[in-house]
């Protein structure tokens, strides 16, 4: 199962990232998870409202509303994990909506690593920096949810683990979060 975290307001970006590039980032995240081996794919909504038509939800994606989305990404993650817990899913691959260059090949590689890992934990790593997706076995969901507060998401729980399988994916994507529109980013970098 896949979970796209798309509930935030995107304050640095200037609008909810679920709407970025006419919804292209959202479609890319759903496609990456689905084509990488995740079914179904949950999309956690928040700032855009609970109605999936406000974001042009891709066909087959399952909308989940995070009513407390404004408290941070932890609320979105908890909403996604609650929804996943109502399914027979064994593990979830979690991706934020703002990593548009992460494709199905990255997802498939990290899923394969998680399946082989006794810990049931794997994550993509780009140039020695932890990234997404993060794949988490169901045995961790309660603990992840308990520690997912504010903007930490699963970071607090995962950073305390020494059994996380880190999967190098530099050859497939940059894994960069897109926090600013392209023109703003260029202005900030001096280009």
From TrEMBL:
Source organism, top-level taxon: Bacteria
Residue ranges occupied by any MobA-like NTP transferase domain in the UniProt entry: 2-161
InterPro entries: MobA-like_NTP_Trfase, Nucleotide-diphossugar_trans
A Pfam cross-reference name: NTP_transf_3
A GO MF term: nucleotidyltransferase activity
Protein name: Nicotine blue oxidoreductase
């Amino acid at each position: 199962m896949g979970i796209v975290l798309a509930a935030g307001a995107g304050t640095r970006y200037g609008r909810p990232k679920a709407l970025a590039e006419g919804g292209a980032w959202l479609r890319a995240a759903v496609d990456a998870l689905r084509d990488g081996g995740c079914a179904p794919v949950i999309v956690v909504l928040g700032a855009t409202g609970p109605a999936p038509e406000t974001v042009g939800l891709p066909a087959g994606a399952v909308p989940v509303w995070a009513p407390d989305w404004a408290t941070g990404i932890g609320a979105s993650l908890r909403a996604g994990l609650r929804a996943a817990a109502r399914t027979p899913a064994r593990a979830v691959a979690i991706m934020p909506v703002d990593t548009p260059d992460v494709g199905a090949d990255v997802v498939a590689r990290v899923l394969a690593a998680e399946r082989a890992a006794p810990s049931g934990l794997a994550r993509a790593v780009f140039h020695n920096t932890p990234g997404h997706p993060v794949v988490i076995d169901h045995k961790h969901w309660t603990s992840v949810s308990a520690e997912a507060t504010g903007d930490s998401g699963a970071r607090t729980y995962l950073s305390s683990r020494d059994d996380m399988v880190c999967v190098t994916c530099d050859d497939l994507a940059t894994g960069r979060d897109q926090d600013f529109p392209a023109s703003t980013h260029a202005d900030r970098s001096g280009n």
